[in-house]
Amino acid sequence: MREIGMSIPQFFICPISLELFSDPVTLCTGQTYDRPCIEKWIAAGNLTCPVTMQKLHDLSMVPNHTLRHLIDQWLRMSRHHHRHHNHGQFDDSDQDYCNFCKVASSDVSLLSLKKTLESKDSVFEQKIQALEQIRCLSEDLPTKNEGLIQMGFFPLMLGLAFGARLSQNMMGLVEKALDCALKLMPFSCLGDSYVLMEGSKFENFRVLFKDGTFTVKKSLFKLIEALSMSSSFETKELANKIGNETKVLQGLITSLDDYQQNPEVSEAGIKAILGLLTSIEGTKCRENFVKQGLVHSLVTYILEVERKEKNLAPKATRALEIVLELESGKKAFLENEVPNGVRALVKMVFRVSGDDEGSESAVNSLMILCCESLEVREEAICGGILTQLLLLLQSQCSGRTKARARMLLKLLRSMWAKDPKHVGKLGRLV
User: Which ranges carry the U-box domain (predicted)?
Assistant: First the structure.
């Protein structure tokens, strides 16, 4: 190899032994080492990553099959190249070697980007530039650039976003890192999100809900939505922790109140709220949401957006239905009701657009409230609930929704029939 001017690619060399990898494995920090070397390091009582000096919260070692494959390929090409070089020949093996070098060079560029982002010596501008390059590369997923996933860029992006010292100057880096993380997330293992459970990173996560830019908050909400949809143990544990953090809940609820100013952030917020409400076990998270004023904000949000052609009023109605199942949720609605809140639910029962999403939630919500309050029943009747229910029964909605609509009609008739002064009014409305 020396005779023909060849050298071992830098990323094929173990950082500990400085020799060619024989069995490359990757640690939780994203760094790769030769298995015998890193096992010896850990056996000596070292619980940090030799390159980054980060504490190893997980001692598992993941075989780096991609790197192993590249090394095997490189060795085969090198032998062919060396043999034909000695005989003064040039054939397909030389072309294969050239093609391999192109593939390897792309991995080298990813490695250099990773080192730039991980290095404490890299200046702010270098990291911003590297993040921009990663954002562009991530747009080729899943057809190209699988190396971004295989080389651990998803947890690296999360580490950058939540590991930086939070300041106004650093917010630009946080925005770009989160943007990259969201682009990589559909192709990554969401279990890698567990890195957020680390004390300092989770604290930054909480702070960003209060002090982050609107762009950062929208990204945080999308991250929460994705975590709440995952079924892995790690993500469920993380989602539960997030759902019981007051600052996080306050940030989500505030996004609904800012609908007029930032509708996109509000839409991301309502998706994250619904994700947490439906995925987290137990009632603690839901009770905390109610304590922070979610009921009032949901009703206000529905009133604001139900007239729009494309909106998330149905998801907000579903979220409201979930919290109304709690005694505290019903109490919050009945005692601190937003003006026209019942009318907003009545309108959601049947929508002229023909979109019956949210109809069942609206019917269920009214059923819960009508069982609790005569005033709600009166307001619902005056708001046109009977007409809405009859229209819904004639629509193409699901059989389940129609069954719930009939139950609500029956409930209203039986309750009003008990009061003679309302019988005639009910008959006229029907």
Answer: 7-81
Cα–Cα distance list, 235 to 16, 60, 78, 145, 201 (Å): 33, 18, 44, 25, 15
Please tell me the distance from the alpha carbon of residue 370 to that of residue 44, in angstroms, as a whole number.
Answer: 68
CA dist 419 and 425 (Å) reads 11
User: 146-204, pLDDT tens digit by residue?
Assistant: 778 877 889 999 999 998 677 767 888 999 999 999 999 988 887 778 888 887 888 88
Question: What's the whole-model pTM score?
Answer: 0.71
Per DSSP, 53 falls in state -
230 CA to centre of own chain: 9
CA 90 to chain centre: 52
In the chain, the domains with their CATH numbers are 1-119 (3.30.40.10)
Distance CA 194, CA 198 (A): 8
Residue 111, number of CB atoms within 10 A of its CB: 16
- Cβ neighbours for 170, distance < 8 A, ≥ 6 positions apart: 124, 164
Tokens matching residue 267: 């839409």
The string of DSSP codes covering 237-250 is HHHHHHHT-HHHHH
Specify whether the CB–CB gap between 405 and 360 falls below 8 A: no
Place of tokens 């039986």: 414
For 284-334, write each residue's pLDDT tens digit: 889 999 999 999 999 989 888 866 655 788 999 999 999 999 999 999 998
Half-sphere exposure for 64 (CA within 13 Å, toward CB): 27
Out of 110-119, 161-170, 207-216, 328-337, least confident range = 161-170
Element (DSSP H or E) covering residue 62: strand 62-63
Angle, alpha carbons 287-293-294 (nearest 5°): 75
Rounded Cα gap, residues 179 and 185, in angstroms: 10
Element (H, E) at 170: none
Rounded-to-integer distance, Cα 191 and Cα 189, Å: 5
Residues 6+ apart with CB under 8 A from 157: 134, 177, 178, 180, 181, 184
**8 A C-beta contact, residue 248 and residue 208:** no
pLDDT digit string, tens, across residues 23-44: 999 998 888 999 999 999 999 8
CB atoms within 10 A of CB 129: 15
Phi, psi of 418 (to 5 degrees): -70, -20
Q: Where do the DSSP E strands lie in 171-323? A: none
